[in-house]
Design brief:
By secondary structure, the chain is of the alpha+beta class. It has helices spanning 5-10, 71-83, 118-122; strands at residues 17-20, 25-31, 65-68, 89-95, 102-105, 111-115, 125-128.
């Protein structure tokens, strides 16, 4: 996602901006399956998890799917999971306009909260990298 430097500098972690996806964006997500299925693109809410009480200000994120602008961030997560014996994969996702996808960029990180239906997000999957 592209933001003007001045916009990014003015926002804080608690000052988040929800944007309708207006252009293609390549992002990355850790998934459990190769190839991934719709279950790899469900939110915490859809999987039955609840927000931590001290983080209610960002409870909206429980309805989102975490993705990252940086492949390196996801690769690190996948490598750490591999050390515990869990199989995870780095999925490249090409988000496209027209699917009703919304994104929240978290300032000073590569983390994105992506809002969309699991099958729509799955349709954006391109490859395991």
């Amino acid at each position: 996602m592209q933001f003007k430097d001045s916009e990014r500098d003015q926002r804080t972690q608690k000052d988040l901006l929800l944007q309708h996806l207006s252009h293609e964006a390549i992002v990355y997500r850790a998934v459990r399956n190769d190839p991934p299925g719709a279950a790899d693109f469900v939110s915490h809410y859809e999987s039955g998890r609840r927000p931590v009480p001290s983080q209610h200000y960002k409870a909206f994120a429980w309805f989102a799917v975490s993705m990252f602008a940086s492949r390196t961030t996801v690769d690190r997560f996948v490598q750490n999971r591999a050390k515990t014996g869990e199989a995870w994969y780095t999925a490249e996702v090409r988000l496209v306009p027209g699917l009703g996808i919304y994104v929240v960029y978290r300032p000073k990180t590569t983390h994105l909260d992506v809002f969309g239906f699991p099958n729509d997000l799955l349709s954006c999957f391109t490859t395991i990298v």
